[in-house]
Amino acid sequence: MRMDPCQDFLHLYHSFGPNRRALIHLLEQFDGDARRIRGSSKLELKQFGLESRMVSKILTSKPAQVKQDLIWAENPTNRILTYRDSSYPALLRQIPDFPALLYTSGNANLLQNPQIAIVGSRLCTPGGAQTAFEFAQQLSVAGLTITSGMALGIDTQAHRGALLAGSGTIAITGTGLDQIYPIENRKLAQEILDCGVLASEFPLGTRPRPANFPQRNRVISGLSLATLVIEAAQRSGSLITARLAGEQGRDVFAIPGSIHNPQTRGCHQLIRDGAKLVEQPADITKELSNLMEFALEHQNQTSTTATLELDLEHQSLLEAIGYDPVTSDTLVRRSGLTIDKLSSMLLILEINEFIQSAPGGCYVRNHSRYT
User: Whole-prediction pTM value?
Assistant: First the structure.
């Protein structure tokens, strides 16, 4: 039986349940060593603020899900990536509330590719469906991997467009990977497995619940360099994904439509709020060309040989950041850059681990890189 990730990590993952932040905080206190945590005394663990009930779960319980996970991972197409695994997607690792682990089925290497999220209405118009299909196909050919949520409507068409291009596509689910949802997309899920990847942070057996999908959406946006919204009502999950993308410092694109179509009002609102209006795939690839190049360079580097040379512009921004947490507004004043240009450059510095996000919407140098 494969022990990757280790049984101790899975034990902690299931013991903590939904409280993933507390799990990651504890792991970081032990340099990510789950086995050392499980070998600690009750007194040691209580020093980290854990309640007695949680300490007992960590030290004595035996979650049934651990055995289930390990059996599932014996299938060569299945993997479980912990956030400390070198194969864990680097861009996702940059968001404040990244998942502690991902279950994956299919080609997990795709998670390292430069990606764009394509999301939109489940009740899309025929024109919206065609637009999603064509944009996904052309963006795939241009070198971007399409990431979406395998929902009906725009998501489905985005995945199908990527598949027709002969590229893999990434579906992030709001269920365990043994629960295909919606059931109408079972055939699509199999097609994605053949040359793409399904991924989820939810344990096996997790059924679709409304609260799962906003949580799923932050992973879709967190994996991606940018999010493209095609048809979205004014209150929709797609707008949640777009909002999360903005909070994560990623670009948001939106396609306008008829003022008489209620399914485009969300896109118009996004554009009013600062999303970039696009009319053709080239509008996106032009905007993302530098990010795509840097992401590919980062993808080809190993953790032991990453020695990215910064150009003068990025080096100047790094110097403007200094050594204390600083907001983007302060950096606009210090650097003279526009907010759009600054956001792209900050993302490049984050991808390559020169800086990291800090509380309060701040950025700070990644001191571990310089020690």
Answer: 0.80
